[in-house]
Amino acid sequence: MFYFLCMMKKNAYLPILLLAVAFTAFGDKAADSVSAALDTAAGTAGSTFVNTPASNIRKAVVIPVAGPVDYSMATFVGRAIFDAAKEDNVLIVLDIDTYGGQVDAAFTIVDSITASRAPTVSFVRSKAISAGALIALSADQMFMRPGTTIGDVAPLINTSEGPQMLGEKHQSPIRAKFRTLARKNGYHEVLTEAMVTEEIAVYEIALPDSVIYLDSLKAANLPDSVKKQIKSQKLVVKAGELLTMTEAEAQHYGFSKKTVSTIDEMLREMGHQNAEIVNISKNWSENLSGLIASFAPVLMMFGFALIYIEMRTPGFGVPGILGIVCIALVFFGQYMVGLADYSEMLLIIFGVILLCVEIFVLPGFFIGAAGIGLIIIGMLLSLQDFVIPDPEIPWQTAALQKNILLLSLSILGSIVLVLVFFKYFFEKLGRVVQGPYLAATLGGAQADEDMAFVPKVGDRGTALTPLRPAGKVRIDKELCDVVTDGQFIDNGTAVVITQIQGNRIVVAAAE
Q1: In the structure, what pLDDT confidence band is assigned to residue 90 with cuts at 50, 70 and 90?
Q2: Non-local CB neighbours of 227 within 8 Å, separated by 6+ positions
Q3: Distance between CA atoms of residues 358 and 219, nearest Å
Q4: Which of 91, 143, 295, 380 has its CA 20 to 30 A from that of 246?
Q5: Order of strands, sheet of 202-206, starting from the edge strand that comes earlier in the sequence
């Protein structure tokens, strides 16, 4: 009937400039040894970014990177950078205050930053933790406010025992991204890796004319000629801990250019004090997509429940409309952040068509179940930017498991809502609301009792349609709209009237 393309739905591979770093030496043999160690372990501190002349920067576009790092943020930051870079002589300022979030969303933001044709600078307002550190270090330069922190980029997953650090398979791609950014901006590679992997112990080694940073293994294996010239050696981070730096430490290790209190002060330090500051904020669609994403599980739960209620009641009315609206809202939110695409839309639309066929044309179970199944598959794919997890992107497997759990909980919640509705509310609703099942022509029964059919408790008949719980029954050659007390009865089954409440006829399967 249909097939899926087993490939990533979206890929963004953007070029990153790799810059070589040279070291001055204090002796031929010592220089060779130190350079070899640095080539494999560290790198030279100091940014490779060349300031645009102050007279040329006329505008500083400030983009907030605050709150959880997710696809909503990635869409906003990417859009803001793209719009800002359309103009000449613009500096892009990333105003960062985040504990991190989704790794793949952070990678998307990093790719947007590194691909920008305009110069970029990150301003750590409060904290740049986890994915926030990755974003902060991707800019051409970084400044930090007093009392701020950066680091601790270990990939975590929530388990029944609490947050657990993911293994080497997940850490390796993140370390590789940090190494790329370190080479681009002249940071010490081993220090960036120490933010990701807690097994690394890093030492700061002062030589007569330079300072190098090495892990414990490379520090122990330095040639004796180099060891003799070591002036001091200090442990930066010990094994079993992740590197997290204050603003002073980040400046000392070469990550932060300077500690500043405001963006205005930062611009003065960069020589762009005359630049106009323009603050960018999310537009209405980005705000709406973020709001919908926060309520997506609840919307899916009500959407599935209302669609199922519509299938089990005759005609098409409010439950079906509301259910489709709930599902459409979730899809719209995912589409706005770039996760959902036309393939998911087609699956959901095809599922809705099958539901309509089941309701209006061919009553039965399997057609409607197939429709709900297609809607569920479409919703699952809309929650992620891939179809099958890529082995080279290991956190996609964790994302798939999380999305399946999210959908399962939504479906379980919808089942509970359906059971509660039919058990406690459906019968009461029938007493006050005139629904399609109240269309039996009983109004004239009192006018001419000899000619009109008047159903009575105990009358027997045969179900002409499945009663789920409403449907049609033939009683004494008359066609009546009836309901059950929650029982599902197949068509062709003998039934008996158990209650008559006004115009409402309640039946049960006859013994």
Answers
A1: very high
A2: none
A3: 72
A4: 91
A5: 211-215, 202-206, 232-237
